[in-house]
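FAQ

Q: What does a record look like?
A: Structure on top, sequence underneath. For example:
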């Protein structure tokens, strides 16, 4: 559609050497013909961001083969396990990553260079492709932060529903450009490709993120839109302040993929007052966004003296109009506003399906395993994964609530709260702190929490670190942190 309507408009890459929509289609057709000859049921992608990523997405779609990106940051052993699970498949692999892979039955490995050459081959580009009725569009492995990764099944109808209900076809101005720094194996990386093409906005992929490179690219390419995760935004703001750069061309930043600390978004609104900020909450299994806190919501919240309105800055906004969202208790009963429970969602874009396993209910509702609540005006507040809830003496305690309080302390730069095993109470509350200038004492921080929350929510265990473990999409690795904090401590050397 985009190639027919705006063939010469730049779709991918930098202004100087970008690829037009018509050329994206031609390359995708060439790549599809080549992949068809190689066989396999899926098209695997292992590599950094760039135009070949988007072209491979559409090449797979043209021949009805699901696109399956893999996490190149995984240890080699885990990466090869995932690769074996994709068989029979063709794996397009960055040239310098091929050496990490072991032979896997049913998996044909080709280099990124070979794929790019095939996309440009006139013989491939001119071939007639068979008519297909594509079903599964993407197989996306979950991050596996709480166990073995599962392959989420995203069908073309799920992805199409999300795109056409949230983006206006060719609604972008020709000069607009999106800077994408989230990896292909994250749902935001996939949705960026699809929404960018449908909206007609040029996509500039950042192969690997550093805040300095991000700012450099945003300036050089006059980037108008960007999507970041919370950990990226804080580091970008540091660079902007240091350079006294205000990115005059930037119009909008969307963020998601992890919990955004309120001090960070308040700082962003102060440093970049001309930018529209959007908090987009979604899951892999829902084909991306299900709730949005829009620019007007951000500005109203930051400037309001009404505590209920100001609190919305910590929400993920209101559900998209094409979706239904409910908060339910453990028995499945729908809860009223203000009460916490599990977030359920229903709609055409919701897959709720894993390879060989259906997770959506017969009536279409999908249990997200995220805890949260809604206020009287329909704003959704996400408290975190239900797996992370601390159960102390039969009381359910949300780590996010305690983390928010601790982040308000002037000497706390970052914090993670979790539950550690306890013989008496089942679990005890523990806090891992990254301090700013000077190190606050555990007693001081404990008193801070106790004055704002009740004593049962005050951490009993305190640990101070230089940094907390996050994955590249901004998710705190609580499982890893919990294992580290639960491990027996070695006695100090004398």
């Amino acid at each position: 559609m985009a190639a027919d309507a705006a063939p010469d408009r730049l779709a991918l890459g930098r202004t100087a050497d970008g690829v037009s929509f018509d050329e994206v289609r031609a390359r995708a057709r060439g790549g599809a013909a080549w992949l068809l000859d190689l066989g396999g049921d899926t098209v695997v992608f292992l590599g950094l961001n760039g135009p070949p990523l988007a072209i491979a997405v559409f090449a797979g779609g043209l021949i009805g083969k699901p696109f399956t990106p893999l996490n190149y940051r995984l240890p080699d052993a885990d990466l090869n396990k995932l690769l074996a699970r994709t068989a029979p498949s063709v794996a397009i692999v960055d040239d310098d990553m091929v050496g990490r892979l072991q032979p896997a039955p049913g998996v044909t490995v080709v280099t990124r260079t070979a794929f790019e050459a095939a996309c440009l081959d006139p013989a491939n580009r001119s071939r007639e492709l068979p008519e297909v009725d594509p079903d599964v569009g993407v197989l996306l492995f979950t991050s596996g932060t709480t166990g073995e990764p599962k392959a989420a099944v995203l069908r073309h109808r799920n992805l199409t529903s999300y795109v056409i209900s949230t983006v206006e076809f060719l609604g972008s101005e020709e000069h607009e450009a999106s800077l994408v720094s989230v990896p292909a194996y994250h749902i935001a990386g996939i949705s960026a490709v699809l929404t960018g093409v449908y909206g007609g906005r040029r996509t500039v992929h950042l192969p690997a993120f550093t805040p300095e490179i991000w700012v450099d690219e945003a300036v050089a390419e006059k980037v108008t839109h960007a999507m970041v995760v919370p950990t990226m935004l804080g580091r970008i703001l540091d660079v902007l302040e240091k350079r006294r750069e205000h990115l005059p061309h930037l119009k909008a930043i969307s963020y998601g993929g992890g919990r955004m600390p309120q001090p960070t978004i308040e700082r962003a609104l102060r440093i970049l007052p001309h930018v529209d900020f959007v908090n987009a909450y979604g899951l892999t299994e829902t084909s991306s966004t299900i709730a949005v806190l829009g620019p007007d919501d951000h500005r109203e919240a930051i400037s309001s003296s009404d505590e209920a309105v100001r609190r919305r800055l910590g929400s993920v906004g209101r559900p998209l109009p094409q979706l239904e969202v409910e908060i339910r208790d453990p028995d499945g009963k729908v809860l009223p506003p203000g009460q916490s429970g599990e977030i359920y969602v229903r709609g055409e874009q919701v897959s709720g399906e894993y390879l060989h396993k259906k997770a959506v209910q017969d009536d279409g509702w999908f249990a997200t395993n995220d805890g949260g609540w809604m206020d009287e005006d329909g704003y959704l507040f996400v408290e975190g994964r239900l797996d992370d809830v601390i159960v102390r003496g039969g009381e359910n305690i949300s780590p996010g609530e305690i983390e928010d309080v601790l982040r308000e302390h002037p000497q706390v730069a970052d914090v993670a709260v979790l539950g550690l095993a306890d013989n008496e109470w089942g679990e005890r509350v523990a806090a891992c702190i990254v301090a700013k200038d000077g190190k606050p004492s555990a007693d001081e921080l404990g008193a801070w929490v106790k004055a704002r929350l009740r004593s049962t929510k005050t951490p009993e265990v305190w640990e101070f670190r230089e940094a907390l473990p996050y994955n590249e999409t901004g998710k705190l690795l609580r499982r890893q942190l919990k294992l580290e904090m639960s491990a027996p401590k070695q006695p100090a050397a004398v």
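Q: Is there anything notable about this one?
A: Residues 369 and 452 are 28 Å apart (CA to CA).
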